[in-house]
Amino acid sequence: MTILTELAGLPGVMAVGEYSYRGDRFSHKGQLDDEQARMASIMCRATTMSVHMQSEILGSFSTDCGFNPARGWIVTGPRFAVCVVANVFCFLDKTAASLNDVLGIMRTQLDGAPSELV
Amino acid sequence: MADLDRLMNLPYALAAFQFSDRGELMSSRIADDCPLDDKALDLLCHMCVANTAIATMQARGWERITATEGFYPIDGFTIVGFEWSAVTSGNFGVVLPNDQADYQAAYDALAD
Amino acid sequence: MIKRLLIVDGVNVVCKFRDDGALVEGYGVLTEAEMGHLAKFAHDYKRIVQGNADQLSMFTQLRGWTPPAGWVVRGQSTAACSVGNLVCVVDVRLASLTEVMRELTELSHW
User: Fold this and answer.
1) What ipTM does this complex have?
2) Which pTM value belongs to this model?
3) At the topology level of CATH, where does B4-111 sit?
4) Is CATH 3.30.450.30 correct for C2-108?
């Protein structure tokens, strides 16, 4: 089972997707149409790039910085949240999803994902 | 409102912090065995505020273009680092080790 | 060639960076290592601005934002300005940002 299939089957997961770090390729499952998934990929790619740069800056100030390199990020709104680890994104309904379950699967499955392409 | 001592009671919490709307560190608690210091936390706070601002722009654009609601306004940003995560919401945040992080409990504590 | 930017009032440092962020050449009042950091920052920041401009285009459905030609980050006394693969650090009290950006734009084409 791919990570997208596994995540898409969790309660409260509205949509999941995977995008390439360079270029416009992406795949997705759930309640987003192709154009929305493309936009989500653009947004997630941009934020991932920023977070990686910022983590490097944090890391440059100390040799023992557990934030660097960044593995992902989460943003939360009143009802929905977006979780990203490596190049996989997941849109959640906070009222139905378990953040810990989603993050747990993403972190485990994407543990060895390379970050040099970010 | 969250308070730092209560945030430090989250299991395995490494640090808890409060920051201004501009991202300046206002107060902190740091566990004895944690190598973070106030200078690093101050930078972390600026990072979280910066990303919350970007995410707010994204949420605004997304909701307008997709005619949906539920993302705006962004109330929290979390970085999942290599070993640690920093969970922030409002003007407070907590640093947790990834392997033991209970993200939901952190958000719940920050929302209290 | 880029060294001539140092003649412009207020310009303290100028660097050229590769598409992978490595320093190609740099002149001014920073050490080689510091210029390396500046080059890396400018490269990363260029990509972030590009990413944000893409999103602005996407959300506003207007094309005028992309590709971004450059950026300026202005502090109280110092600013970083970049066009293409060039970045410079200027003293905002002495420099005309218009002149700096014009020179950067011209030199970025070389």
Assistant:
1) 0.89
2) 0.91
3) Beta-Lactamase (3.30.450)
4) yes
